[in-house]
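Recap slide: P-type Zn(2+) transporter, sequence and predicted structure.
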Amino acid sequence: STPAAIAAGLATGARRGLLMKGGAVLEGFRDITAVAFDKTGTLTKGKPVVTDVLAFGRDQRAVLALAAALEQGSSHPLAVAILDRAKADKAPVPPVLAAKAIAGKGVEGSVGGVAAFLGSGQAAAERATLSEAQRFAIDSLNGAGKTVSVLLANGAVAGLIAMRDEPRPDAAAGIAALKGEGIRAVMLTGDNRRTAEAIAASLGIDARAELLPQDKQRIVGELQRQGLKVAKVGDGINDAPALAAADIGIAMGGGTDVALETADAAILHGRVMDVARMVRLSRAVMANIR
Ligand code: ADP
Ligand code: MG
């Protein structure tokens, strides 16, 4: 049976938008020594905005139209950014055949007879040869904290689409609060290393970049084998395995159905600071019990 103090702690959390699935989760927060954060939608707002469109061999609207065609069935934040921009620019979005998401890499499909791919520079480089100038452009955009998706058409680079996703306003303070509680914080992301490091530096957190979903899960396991009790915070898009592997999985942001099912706890108001608040709540409640 749940002691009254724990029930009261769970209720206090719930009133503040900190949902914990039961007394064992509340108790578990006391012992957390590391927090791994997903980047997109967790440390950042998850609402990237298209900042640059570079076109090769066709015009910008054609690049946006082809990219939007691939993304039309996707709920990935980068997909939403591209669809919004295509709409704003009144780029016509043609239908796509056999569209397929490749987790942590991008999307592919057939658009008007063209075999198209849109995804990370790394994934594009596995499928096509990028020119020196294209690689330089990607590096410069990444250095400015922008994520670049590369559009391939029949195996050739057709365009680069750069997007910026601003950090959540309390991200730096929320990370500092965890460090103040003696907790290690690390950012795990599928995004490019330069982009990740630009954002991580501004937030005061260590970053592990260019990760696939299974890599995020593996790193959670590595931290646990170092003797750390690990909480993983994510929106569940591509990181459900890592959420499930963590000692405590925390869903944040849009909170996809997957994430809420896999998670032990949820942050309803999108505040990074709420992770430290759950730890403090747990420590206060448990100190009163033992
Ligand atoms: P994060 O770890 O930041 O949540 P993801 O694992 O979702 O990032 O994606 C990793 C990278 O793969 C993205 O930065 C992007 O370059 C590429 N990518 C993944 N899905 C898409 C998509 N639907 N459209 C464009 N690019 C994508
Ligand atoms: Mg993600």
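Residues 38, 40-41, 235, 237-239 surround magnesium ion (ligand 2) (CB under 6 Å).
DSSP finds 13 helices and 13 strands in the chain.
(End of recap.)
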